[in-house]
Amino acid sequence: MTTKKRIALVAHDERKQDLLNWAKDNTENLRQHLLYATGTTGKLIQDKCGLDVNRLKSGPLGGDQQLGAMIAEEKLDILIFFWDPMAAQPHDVDVKALLRMAVLYNVPSACNRATADYMISSTLFSEEYKPVIKDYGQYLDRYEK
């Protein structure tokens, strides 16, 4: 990761205001980085915070999968995903897949405000950082034979 991070901002409907409040509180810091967001969340952050956001599709229409692909291609450094723990989502399998990719590729992830606050206030947020990626070679070898 370079000093300019590639950050995904995602929120379910009931958490969009929480993410918007967090983004407002951190606008100047976020402005220093490349931002990506799923459809509606990205528009909300653009309109209310004046941040430049690369908008993907809405989560249920494939946006979560687009972010997962970005992670697999090492094109995303940080995932801020305020998901709603109180409601089933029509695209729960996509959400789970996105979170799995973040863990698989050791992408720092925040699912709530406290974790997002810790992450953005870390000295590592504005420095170069080389995450350790687990080598899954032995795992793959077992199944290729």
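The record above closes out task 2.4. Task 2.5 opens with a second protein, given below.
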Amino acid sequence: QGLVDQVHAVSDGIAAEWATAHSRLEQVVSETNQAAGDLASLNSQILEGVGAGRPVNELLDQRDILVRKLADLVGGYAVRGPDSTISLAVNGVTIVAAGTAQKLTLTGATDLQAAAGSPPMISWGTMAVPVESGAAAGYLAALRTDLPNLSTSVDGMANALRDAVNSLHTTGFTLSGAAGGAFFSGTGAHDLAVVPTTPAELAVSSVGGTIDGSVALKIGDLASDVNASAALGGAAGPSAQWRAVTTALGTQLQSLKAAVAAQDSVVTAADDAVNSDSGVNLDEEMTGMMLFQRAYQASARVITTV
């Protein structure tokens, strides 16, 4: 029962991570809709200001901030029009055009158990939006692939444990002479359970009515990968499967950390380039100020002379 509790804890932990990622993706979709609506509103204000001949520099700055935010959220790609408005598309699906913004929704499963049959996706009406970058893409990958695959692997380990032990327990007999039944029940890690409730139900003897514990010893020997594989007809035993799960997870995490470090350097270089282009150059501004100051002094002398 202690082992079952540990298996449940692992399964529940994966399900909790899935629920957390789903909640965060809902927040990303909500923020995307808000930013897209704000961008469409700014487009209308910019278009009106340009038409009226008013300065729109502040509006343009706000527009650029929203474009960057949408890029971070869903990987939006922006195109500037001749009227200074921005159209923004996500992998070919336009979500902002001039003063109009489309509303995205999160559809599909709302829990891990249903994710395989109905994977979560971001949609516009009845059309799926193929998000491939931004925070949304990361959460979608976790919800659709990473966590379901991890859960499936843990379920496989639990089922291997169930089948290996049951294959031996059903060959034994109880002290009363009854043939042994299943020791574990369940369809995966989330519902793995111990069937016997009293010691009298344990079929751990090879002959009914005796106490030799030979079947119990064979069950204990399942800790060996060779014995577990033999009990499963050549398939990998629960211990081997568990090691494979943890090794694969560790390798994936190391790979992702390396990818994050590399991508951070790319983003930093891009930010530096943007800041260099749009920032204030103090030397240039000082030169300009001196130029205007000398021009003012020269004009003052001309006026004085006249």
